[in-house]
Write a structure and sequence with these properties.
This protein is of the alpha/beta class. The chain has one domain: Rossmann fold (3-Layer(aba) Sandwich). The chain is built from 8 helices and 8 strands. Strands 4-5-6-1-7-8 form a 6-stranded mixed sheet, with helices on both faces. The protein has a two-stranded antiparallel ribbon with strand order 2-3. Strand 7 (178-183) and strand 8 form a beta hairpin.
């Protein structure tokens, strides 16, 4: 799991939007799994979006008129997966995320943490190579945030999903394996967890943040 830490809120949304192909780059190239995605067009671009990317939004972006099950099923329906396989895959991922009991409920009937897990299920049910998460813990309480980060760890370690997460929070960042600090739209510093404990890694994050003059708004 990677974390991008934007010290001054300059560039992180643009970066995520270009990686997800929402926006086009004005120069340069972006490679995902060895392929230059800036050159993709038409059906190839649509296939990349459908099959290789998962996007988790801070505000969930769930449809209140659909059940949690139906929200997750959208991506598979677009891929024309059979109804039987859709159900099997959703039940499997819902079991891992502990949300089977809410699949028949609507988003407005569940908690914020549960909504976020539904959003995660929707993002990863297609088995994407890359999952993009834009400040996913920003609207969650501390307990729900911790549970979510543990889910990310599970996805990264057991399902081999690469997760690119943007945050301003040191606690959230401490769950990552690698952190890139962005300042004024450029990579300013880097931390790699290696064999550090999460507590030791957290302390290193705080040291870098203090050195670079950023605001500290998190505690361990």
């Amino acid at each position: 799991m990677w974390v991008l830490w934007d010290l001054q809120a300059h560039g992180k949304t643009t970066l995520l939007n270009t990686i997800s192909t929402i926006d086009k780059v004005t120069c340069g190239h972006i490679f995902v799994n060895g392929e230059d995605i800036t050159k993709l067009k038409g059906n190839k671009l649509n296939k990349f979006r459908r099959e290789e990317l998962g996007f988790i939004f801070q505000d969930f972006n769930l449809l209140d008129t659909l059940t949690c099950f139906e929200n997750i099923a959208i991506a598979l329906t677009i891929q024309r997966v059979s109804a039987k396989e859709i159900e099997e895959r959703i039940l499997e991922i819902a079991g891992k995320l502990e949300i089977r009991d809410i699949l028949k409920k609507y988003p407005y009937q569940v908690s914020g943490g549960q909504k976020q897990r539904v959003a995660i299920a929707r993002a990863i049910v297609t088995n994407p190579k890359l999952v993009l998460a834009d400040e996913p813990t920003g609207s969650l309480d501390s307990k729900s945030a911790r549970q979510l980060l543990e889910v990310f760890e599970y996805l990264n370690e057991n399902m081999k999903a690469t997760i690119l997460l943007i945050t301003h929070d040191a606690f959230t960042a401490s769950y990552a394996n690698r952190i890139l600090f962005i300042k004024d739209g450029k990579i300013f510093n880097e931390l790699i967890k290696g064999k550090d404990t999460r507590k030791d890694f957290f302390e290193k994050i705080i040291e870098v943040q203090t050195l670079l003059g950023g605001d500290l708004n998190a505690c361990f």
